[in-house]
């Protein structure tokens, strides 16, 4: 099994007071516990969605998975040799070159320039940017830039994709289009995805597993692997699920 496991993970942050000190007095510090004894599994090749109130630790958990931070205690087990890639609302793109070459540059080492360009054409097509392949990011809309960011993340060949509210800045139509494209790409090239969102409809439409994080770091989990795509959030089962998730988020 190549699932990802978090076992008894704790994480806190210590900050210093901004008070003005005199006579070389020691500046007071404050410690905030963000994650407390978190235990969760992210299934191989599945799309797991994290939801919960702001400040409950969702983004902190993503940073730990990305290796951008380390837990104070506990264990994070990621398969050996795996790499991760992060997609956020403000996705990273190279401003001075075209969409196609942006993606080609993300295709990883060990390939010739010709191989990278050939591969990049496939990823650009996957996210619906073929007609805009010769444009630079400055000529793209916000939604198109996010498609480009998604294409670059996919081209990186990372086994673990971490998405922190990737569609938050988009209008509802563009958001729906990118949700559909993400599911299409996941069907063609399954990756282990952990996605954070504050939109419950988005969580229900996309997730094969939903994890609700509470402020005390306790979790509520729901397996949706047997719920086929495409989904209609107005179906009775999914309406009831949305209500249950809402109740859990209020805890």
Report the C-alpha radius of gyration, rounded. 20 Å
> Topology as H/E string?
EEEHEEHHHEHEHEEH
According to DSSP, the number of beta strands is: 9
CA(first)-CA(last) distance: 33 Å
The computed structural class is alpha/beta
Strand order of the largest sheet: 5-6-7-3-8-9
Tell me what you see in this structure.
This protein has 251 residues and is of the alpha/beta class. Helix content is 33%, strand content 25%. The strands form 2 sheets. The protein has a 6-stranded mixed beta sheet, with helices on both faces. A 3-stranded antiparallel beta sheet has the order 2-1-4, with helices on one face. The longest helix is centred in the C-terminal third of the chain and has 17 residues, at 172-188.
What is shown here, in short?
This protein is α/β, with parallel strands linked by helices and 251 residues long.
Features:
single chain, 251 residues, alpha/beta, 6-stranded mixed sheet, 3-stranded antiparallel sheet, 25% strand
Sequence-ordered SSE layout with sheet pairings:
Blueprint: E1 4-16, E2 29-42, E3 47-52, H1 58-66, E4 73-77, E5 84-87, H2 99-105, H3 113-126, H4 142-155, E6 160-164, H5 172-188, E7 192-196, H6 200-206, E8 209-213, E9 219-223, H7 236-249
Parallel strand pairs: 3-7, 3-8, 5-6, 6-7
Antiparallel strand pairs: 1-2, 1-4, 8-9
Helix pairs in contact: 2-3, 2-4, 3-4
